[in-house]
């Protein structure tokens, strides 16, 4: 070791330069670095040997060794930069995103309630309906009064209404209080009122949305969804109502469905009815369209003359029908979900199982679901 000459160092330099050059990747390059400059690397050992050299030797070999160390370190750095560039180029080439390709499997799913509302919109828009909306926080006028609920009628309590805390400025006595009183809408029927007050007949709308009643058990949640329907014209009669709803259920359940209209009472329709569909229980599942049992799925009727008048329409000139149905219930029936409360628990496993691909649009041509 002590007989090393600067020429020997040149050989070492050439040797390491070749090995650095041949290092095919960053790992191999690091192996060369350790072999040369690591704690027990060849150059490091030589530097350690300087201490045992004579002062004359040291003057020659010291700078020469330092030069070698610097050169090898620089070669390694250069090679490292080149290899990193190459690695980045390779990654860029292999991980390129073609933004024009169709999207892969999406992460989220469409909630069954959303899916069912879209299916309904598809069916009714095919029949010439458009979609209307109203606020979740309604006033007493739109939710009750204009819909022909008498002022002290028990129906207001029957709906298990959530009343909003009145604003401090609000007069809290007399009939003014009721008029200004805000509620969480107990049904989507107030959208009927808003629509009739804002547009001229002929009217043909559905109004999907959230509704609220203070009720909670296996088949009731305080928030639920309804789809309202309203048709107003100069020659609309009960036959139109029946035909429209019969066509709807068959399209919705994608099979022929037998229906039955039972007389009922709603303050805002006269006559009023509930519509049942024929069904059969098959173990835990329910089959719509066959069997000998009847299940109620919606309320409907001819719009009451008082309601038309409240909206500024002449009942002698205009008639129409309205209906309202529970979306959650229809989703459970169509897609076999056993417990209503699971619908709103927000469990990703449930959504993964019952959810729908957001990329598949419901349509009458390609199938609703
Ligand atoms: N609003 C009624 C309910 O929530 C349903 C309904 C709507 C009935 C329209 C008749 C006409 O039960």
UniProtKB/TrEMBL annotation:
<dbReference type="InterPro" id="IPR004529">
    <property type="entry name" value="Phe-tRNA-synth_IIc_asu"/>
</dbReference>
<keyword id="KW-0436">Ligase</keyword>
<keyword id="KW-0460">Magnesium</keyword>
<protein>
    <recommendedName>
        <fullName>Phenylalanine--tRNA ligase alpha subunit</fullName>
        <ecNumber>6.1.1.20</ecNumber>
    </recommendedName>
</protein>
<feature type="binding site">
    <location>
        <position position="270"/>
    </location>
    <ligand>
        <name>Mg(2+)</name>
    </ligand>
</feature>
<comment type="similarity">
    <text>Belongs to the class-II aminoacyl-tRNA synthetase family. Phe-tRNA synthetase alpha subunit type 1 subfamily.</text>
</comment>
<dbReference type="GO" id="GO:0016874">
    <property type="term" value="F:ligase activity"/>
</dbReference>
<feature type="domain" description="Aminoacyl-transfer RNA synthetases class-II family profile">
    <location>
        <begin position="113"/>
        <end position="348"/>
    </location>
</feature>
<comment type="subunit">
    <text>Tetramer of two alpha and two beta subunits.</text>
</comment>
<dbReference type="Pfam" id="PF02912">
    <property type="entry name" value="Phe_tRNA-synt_N"/>
</dbReference>
<keyword id="KW-0648">Protein biosynthesis</keyword>
<dbReference type="InterPro" id="IPR006195">
    <property type="entry name" value="aa-tRNA-synth_II"/>
</dbReference>
<dbReference type="InterPro" id="IPR022911">
    <property type="entry name" value="Phe_tRNA_ligase_alpha1_bac"/>
</dbReference>
<keyword id="KW-0067">ATP-binding</keyword>
<dbReference type="InterPro" id="IPR045864">
    <property type="entry name" value="aa-tRNA-synth_II/BPL/LPL"/>
</dbReference>
<keyword id="KW-0030">Aminoacyl-tRNA synthetase</keyword>
<keyword id="KW-0547">Nucleotide-binding</keyword>
<keyword id="KW-0479">Metal-binding</keyword>
<dbReference type="InterPro" id="IPR004188">
    <property type="entry name" value="Phe-tRNA_ligase_II_N"/>
</dbReference>
<dbReference type="InterPro" id="IPR002319">
    <property type="entry name" value="Phenylalanyl-tRNA_Synthase"/>
</dbReference>
<dbReference type="InterPro" id="IPR010978">
    <property type="entry name" value="tRNA-bd_arm"/>
</dbReference>
<keyword id="KW-0963">Cytoplasm</keyword>
<dbReference type="Pfam" id="PF01409">
    <property type="entry name" value="tRNA-synt_2d"/>
</dbReference>
């Amino acid at each position: 070791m002590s007989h090393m000459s600067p020429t020997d160092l040149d050989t070492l330099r050439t040797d390491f330069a070749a090995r650095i050059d041949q290092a095919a990747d960053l790992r191999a390059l690091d192996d060369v670095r350790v072999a040369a400059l690591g704690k027990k690397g060849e150059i490091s050992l030589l530097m350690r040997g300087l201490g045992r050299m004579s002062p004359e030797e040291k003057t020659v070999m010291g700078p020469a060794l330092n030069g070698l160390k610097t050169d090898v370190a620089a070669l390694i750095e250069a090679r490292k930069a080149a290899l990193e560039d190459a690695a980045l180029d390779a990654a860029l080439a292999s991980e390129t995103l073609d933004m024009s390709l169709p999207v892969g499997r999406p992460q989220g799913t469409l909630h069954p309630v959303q899916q069912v509302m879209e299916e309904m919109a598809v069916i009714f828009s095919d029949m010439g309906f458009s979609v209307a909306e109203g606020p979740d926080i309604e006033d007493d006028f739109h939710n009750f009064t204009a819909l022909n609920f008498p002022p002290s009628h028990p129906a207001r309590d029957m709906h298990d209404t959530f009343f909003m805390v009145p604003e401090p400025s609000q007069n809290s006595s007399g009939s003014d209080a009721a008029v200004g009183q805000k509620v969480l809408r107990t049904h989507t029927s107030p959208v009927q009122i808003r629509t009739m007050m804002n547009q001229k007949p002929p009217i043909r709308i559905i109004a999907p949305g959230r509704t609220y009643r203070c009720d909670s058990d296996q088949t009731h949640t305080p928030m639920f969804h309804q789809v309202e329907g309203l048709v107003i014209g100069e020659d609309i009669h009960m036959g139109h109502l029946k035909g429209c709803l019969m066509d709807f259920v068959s399209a919705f359940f994608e099979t022929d469905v037998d229906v039955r209209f039972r007389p009922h009472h709603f303050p805002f329709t006269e006559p009023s009815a509930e519509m049942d569909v024929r069904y059969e229980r098959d173990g835990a599942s329910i089959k719509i369209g066959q069997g000998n049992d009847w299940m109620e799925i919606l309320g409907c009727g001819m719009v009451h003359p008082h309601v038309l008048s409240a909206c500024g329409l002449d009942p002698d000139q205009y008639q129409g029908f309205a209906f309202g149905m529970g979306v959650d219930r229809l989703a459970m029936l169509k897609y076999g979900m056993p417990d209503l409360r699971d619908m709103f628990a927000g469990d990703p496993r449930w959504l993964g199982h019952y959810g729908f691909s957001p990329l598949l649009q419901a349509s009458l041509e390609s199938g609703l679901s």
